[in-house]
Amino acid sequence: MLAxxxxxxxxxxxxIKVREEILRVxxxxxxxxxxxxxxxxxxxxxxxxPKRENSETIKFRNHVFLPKKPILINIYEIHHSPKYxxxxxxFIAERFENENDExxxxxxxxxV
Length: 112
Known about the structure:
Layout: H1 12-26, H2 34-39, H3 41-46, E1 58-60, E2 63-65, H4 75-79
Antiparallel strand pairs: 1-2
């Protein structure tokens, strides 16, 4: 089962909900189709795949990140900051519904 390591590993209710969705959508199919992947809405809220490769220089505020150099970000602090999240220690998958994307401040959610 796929899931965000920091969230669903500690939340049985989230694991159960993800598992039920996978079984409902995929049944006995081991490899989901594109349409089935789109149907896995709750799983996609829990586990968002990152885009990890940058091939050019990135300028962010007063920082410059060179291509192909490691960037270390304290994701835990961002994801658990009361500045950005109400009840930051609670995992609430519905925060990541598409309609909430526009309300969320940029860079406050970094998929891992």
